[in-house]
Amino acid sequence: MPFPDSFSKIRLQTERLTSDHLSEVLRMHRDPAVMAHLGGVRDDDQTAAYLARNLQHWADYGFGLWILRERGGGEPIGRVVLRHLFVEGVDEVEVHLGTIVAVTSPTNLASQRVLEKVGLVYEREFIHEGALSALFRARASSTEGPLWD
Prior knowledge:
Elements: E1 6-8, E2 12-16, H1 22-30, H2 32-35, H3 44-61, E3 65-70, E4 78-81, E5 83-87, E6 90-94, E7 99-104, H4 109-117, E8 121-128, E9 131-139
Antiparallel strand pairs: 1-2, 2-3, 3-4, 5-6, 7-9, 8-9
């Protein structure tokens, strides 16, 4: 299934991550408030590696990370992620397929509320990329088929 380079909702719009987003990603990664629940502030080398990894994900799988803005433009306010994610050695897809997972910080209650509102359920804590993380999951029943087509 091909995924769009961009999509929008009533208040929000997204655009596929590209190398042109480096300065915006650097700004987000340098902001302690933004990065408080994402593993902490990242330096330029870490951000460059993050960007390269996520661009390669798009090349490999045809989906990945989108930059999120309020409709009408302006500074990015976040990101939307659909990506392969290894959870304790198991290849999962964060937000996709018959079972989906999402990862957030155990202290990021706002993110957890969003995940619960869209139907994911807290499963457990685990170590992801060296940080304690909260794993949320949604499963389709065997009679319903995939969560999303």
